[in-house]
Amino acid sequence: MKPAYSLTLLFFVSSFAMAQALPFSQIPEAPKQLTPSTTLLRMVQGLGFRYYWATEGLRKEDLDYRPSQEASSSLETLQHLYGLSKTIAEAVQNIPSKRPDTKAPVTLESLRAETLTNLELAAQVLSQADQEGLERMKIVFDREGKQSAFPLWNLINGPISDALYHTGQVVSFRRTSGNPIAKGVNVFLGIKN
C-alpha cells in the first residue's frame, strides 16, 4: 500500500469512526487459524478492546489526574498511546514513522477515535497479511531523513506491549480518581456483559 493512499484511507476511516460507533467495544470472533499474522491481529484487537473500555466515560478530572508531579497525567498518557497506535498502523503498512512525532489530538473524543481507528486499520491489514507480507513488514523510524529499520517482532515487545502497559495505567489512574471502568467488562472473553 502506498503511503499517500494509506494516509487518505486513514483520514477517511478516522472521519467515519468519529461519525459512527467506535471500534473494539468487543473483540471480534477469533480467527480460524493460528498463524503469525492472526496472532498479531489478536494482540491488536485485544489492545483495542482494553483501550476502548479504559477510555470510555473519562471525565475532565480523570484526564487531569497524575499520581505525582513528575508523572504523566492521564491525558498525556492517552496522547502517548495515540503515538504508539500510529506507529503500529504505520509499521504494518510499511510507512516510516516520523520522529519527532506530530502533535497528538487534544480532545478525548478525537484521541479515542484516532487511536482506535489506527488500531482498526492495523487489524484490517493484519487480517489480510500472508507470511510473505509479514516478512516484508518492518518498523521504520525516520528522524529528519535518517531512517532506522527494525524487524516486525519488535512491534510485540515495543509498541504493542508499551500500549498495553499504558492502557493499564489509565485504568489504574481512573480508579484512583473515582471513576473505575464500567462493570461487566470481561477482558478474557472480550465482551461487556
Structural write-up:
The chain is mostly helical and 193 residues long. The protein has one domain (33-192): Up-down Bundle (Four Helix Bundle (Hemerythrin (Met), subunit A)), CATH 1.20.120. Helix content is 58%, strand content 10%. The chain has 7 helices and 5 strands. Strand 4 (185-186) and strand 5 form a beta hairpin.
Q: What composes the largest sheet?
A: 3 strands, mixed
Low-pLDDT runs: none
Q: Could you name the CATH topology?
A: Four Helix Bundle (Hemerythrin (Met), subunit A)
Q: How do the strands of the widest beta sheet line up side by side?
A: 1-2-3
* H and E order: HHHHEHHEEHEE
Into which percent range does the helicity of residues fall? 55-70%
- The chain-level structural class is mainly alpha
Overall geometry comes to globular
Radius of gyration: 16 Å
Number of distinct helices: 7
Provide the β-strand percentage band: 5-15%
Name of the CATH superfamily: dinb family like domain
Named at the architecture level, the CATH assignment is: Up-down Bundle
- Arithmetic mean pLDDT: 91
Question: What distance separates the N and C termini?
Answer: 38 Å
CATH class: Mainly Alpha
E-strand count = 5
Number of domains: 1
